[in-house]
Here is the input.
Amino acid sequence: MAELKLKHIYKHYGGVTAVNDFDLEIKDQEFLVLVGPSGCGKSTTLRMIAGLEEISEGELVIGDRLMNDVPPKDRDIAMVFQSYALYPHMNVYQNMAFGLKLRKFKKDEIDRRVREAAKILDIEHLLNRKPKALSGGQRQRVALGRAIVREPQVFLMDEPLSNLDAKLRVQMRTEISKLHQRLKTTIIYVTHDQTEAMTMGDRIVVMKDGVIQQADTPTRIYHHPANVFVAGFIGSPSMNFIQGRLVEKAGAVHFRGSSLDVKIPEGKAKILRQQEMVGKQVIFGIRPEDIHDEPLFLDSTPDSCFTAKVEVAENMGSEMYLYLSGITDQWVTARVNARTGFTIGNEVKLALDMNKVHVFDKETETAVF
Amino acid sequence: MLREREFSRLVGRLEAALGKRVRVLRDEAPPPSAIDSFQLDGRHRLSVAGGLTEQEKALICLFLGEWRQNRVQEPDSGEPLAILEKWLKLTEVRGGLPHPPPSVEELFRKERVPFLAVHPALSGKRMSGLKRVVSSYFEDQAWLVPLNRAESLLLLPLSFIYGEDTKDQKKGLEETAQGLVEVIITEAGEDVRVVVHPAVGEAHLLPRAIATLREVWRIGRTHRPADPVYTTWQFSLEKLLESVDEERVNQFLADVSSTPFWEDEELCQTLEAFLEQDLNVSETARRMFIHRNTLIYRLERLRQESGLDARRFEDAVRIRLALRLSRLFR
Here is the structure.
């Protein structure tokens, strides 16, 4: 069993609280991703699980054993760090076997585990090579192999791909996901990169200033962010935010910003009325892909159309990002079809998909929907 | 010499505590009358003038007990490594560079690379665990000498790192230090940072090498706190800047920018990354997991607020200096 329970965990450094009431249960075989900006406490949390940092308050339970005072080497955990290094004087086989040799495993057991891990990682042909003769991706696999051979209860990975180039990172991302399916072990993975978080995790924990902002599946995090921070952090380009007020107009609820007036669909309006949000200042959120330029869409949603000036158009090949002015004091980003022609400086007519909009309380920044 | 220094320190502490004259006498000298005396070691006694109360006697016994526990033994016998450890402690106590005993000189027949490992304060059991991992990792060729509970010195034959290939020595030393950090964290479960120094060929150079390692550790913690490995050949700019006095630093910072951008942690990280990536916007954005427009926005904000354009070489130099100098007096 490798279920983890982090019960109201705190980490204090002098007067600074780096992790604040982290309370979470991680299921056996779950792939959990901790994501957030620098200094949000995600690596500190991981290091407390590893035993490299003392837990100031709270309890860490792995399986049914309280781990707070168990030394790191006795926690049955394997770690792969951002700054991972291979043992330069040993070949790949020795790199992977060293930990087992130290624990006095029998030779044939060591050999079985090393060859099995090498097969999983497709590095059998590299076993006799020294690290300096390996590419970045191959080194990364060996570092993973060193962790795999230990057959731990839990894998802890702290930004293991951040030193790789973009192409290799995408490839290794898939490899690690496949590895998780094959090994069926609990993995706790720390990253800055929201794309990694979205593509790899069964569940994502978004952190800020040492506090969990939201812990949920990637889909729910993306489509139902708990607050403005999560909504802005997950998604690239990030969600557009427009400040304004909710008003009642001709039996419908409208969002009114400085240069935008759009009708909220009745289902969502009902929620806003129930929560007494009408008349209040709110933050209105819309993702770039929920802003449309297709004529059919514009015709069918006259209540959510608006015009804006194209400041920048970034052609990404399969799609185009338009950076638009005139809606709020900041540019609004729209993701549109790359084949549509746009001229920088021209006015363009677009429409919002009002079924996908988000409304946040301006005071608390928490989501209404 | 060492013994005299130890005696003098003890006498000073006792005189301050008792307010009475305290002397160290050779055992053969007869004690003056009306003086209380206490045995220090096989050849010396401590004498205190003016008669003592029971509390004062108890206090002296307490001081003596502590002194006996902490005093440093002369390195005159034992295994060579134990002698090396004692000799290194002696050099610290004396604050000078005493000549190494012959058995220590003998240890340096091969050139050895000193690594300073800085770790949490370790109990005897955990230190033994660390020694076992390091010894096994370096195939019994490394010596691990505890300098204190939180610092250990590792001495590794240069030939172990390079064999016959002595090309690109610095890279080899750095990779060895990185491997050492990795093995200590993953196999001994101890959080560690390592500083590496070029090989030392003679024992008497070792205390100076240790001082350099410690200096680099201090500088590294200030300027690159997240790095697990430092080398004594990095930080040349930082070492130079440390010689500048605070007033001049403040003057420079005031001249560079009227808004203290170096106090904005997020902007500092962005600028550090941008400078490290040779002012490459795309690569910096990728490394920082931010959209390139976010990076451009931050750089533009800096330009508007301070007049410094990080994309211009001249301004980039000023920014780097400001970032380094601002950390010195934080």
Summary: Chain B has 14 helices and eight strands. The beta strands of chain B are 22-26, 35-39, 44-49, 112-118, 143-148, 151-157, 193-196, 229-231. Residues 73-77 of chain B have pLDDT under 50 and may be disordered.
